[in-house]
Structures are given as C-alpha cells and as structure tokens.
C-alpha cells in the first residue's frame, strides 16, 4: 500500500514538473488579446487524469500553478487562478468521462466534452470573477463582447489543440504511467 501511494505521488510530481515547464512556453494567437496565450501546460494534467483519475489531473493543475505563482507570476496570482480554473474544468470533465469506460470512443467524447465545459466555464469565471478582480471593477455586462468574441473562441481552440495532442500521445505514454515502478526496478536487480 505504501509503495502505491509513493508511486502515485512520484507520478504526480513528475507530471506537475512537466506541466510547469510546458506552462513556461506560451504564445499568443493572432486576433486575440495579448493576455490570452496558448501553452501546453495542461497536457500532463489531462494525460494524468486519463491514466490516474480526474482528481489527479486537478492536483497536477494545482501544483503547476502554485509553482508558477512563486516563480514567474506577472498577474499577482490572477493568471494562475484563471489557468487553474481552465485546466481543472477541462481535465475533470474529460477525465471523468474517460474513467467510466476506458476506450478510444470515450476518450474522444471526454475530450470534446472537456473542451466545451472548459470554454463555457471560463466564460462564467471571467464574467463573475477574473475580469472584475483583474480590472478592479464590478461585474458588468460591458465584458460580454470580450467574453463572446475572445474568451469563448480562444478556449475552444485551446481545447481542440490539447485534445488532438492528447489523442496522439496518450496511448504511447499510458504504459509508462501504469507501470509499477518499484517492481520493475526490483525485477531488473534480480536478473
């Protein structure tokens, strides 16, 4: 039992480190506001959610954003909160659907659902929390055009990019994440 907890913790740590490193590489998309940037930091979280469960994906998102907050934040934590909410809504929805019946079909359905949930959740979170806190202004319907023309399509594009890469990588990474690390090491030593 102890080894399985340690293995899970180790896998979460490794995936969180990869997520943080990928979060550092970000780029804007043309035609979108400069504060909206694509990064692939959610990729280790969705792969972790598929292999180890949706709450593991959320844990990876949390750790990634806590590290980013202390190492590289330029928004006083608001960007990290937004990134955590974005990634968590995506991995929870996609991971939950995939964990119920692990197949290629449910992976696709989960990723599509995760993309839609993420895009809609970020509309709500931006309207009620992120934009008002970042701009230090009350909730306002004046932000609806920004949300509908930038936030919503940006998160749909981000979800599609993450989903395609996940479908391309997950099958090859899955055996590594499901491996019993300590038994493999012991087997090699015994040989």
Automatic annotation (TrEMBL):
> 4Fe-4S: is it a keyword of this entry?
no
Task: Tell where it localizes.
Answer: Cell membrane
Q: How does it sit in the membrane?
A: Multi-pass membrane protein
Give the chief site where it resides: membrane
Keywords, alphabetical = Cell membrane, Membrane, Transmembrane, Transmembrane helix, Transport
Family the UniProt entry places it in: Belongs to the prokaryotic riboflavin transporter (P-RFT) (TC 2.A.87) family.
Q: PANTHER family, alphabetically?
A: RIBOFLAVIN TRANSPORTER RIBU (PTHR38438:SF1)
Q: What does this protein do?
A: Probably a riboflavin-binding protein that interacts with the energy-coupling factor (ECF) ABC-transporter complex.
Q: Would you tell me the protein name for this molecule?
A: Riboflavin transporter
| Organism from which the protein derives | Lutispora thermophila DSM 19022
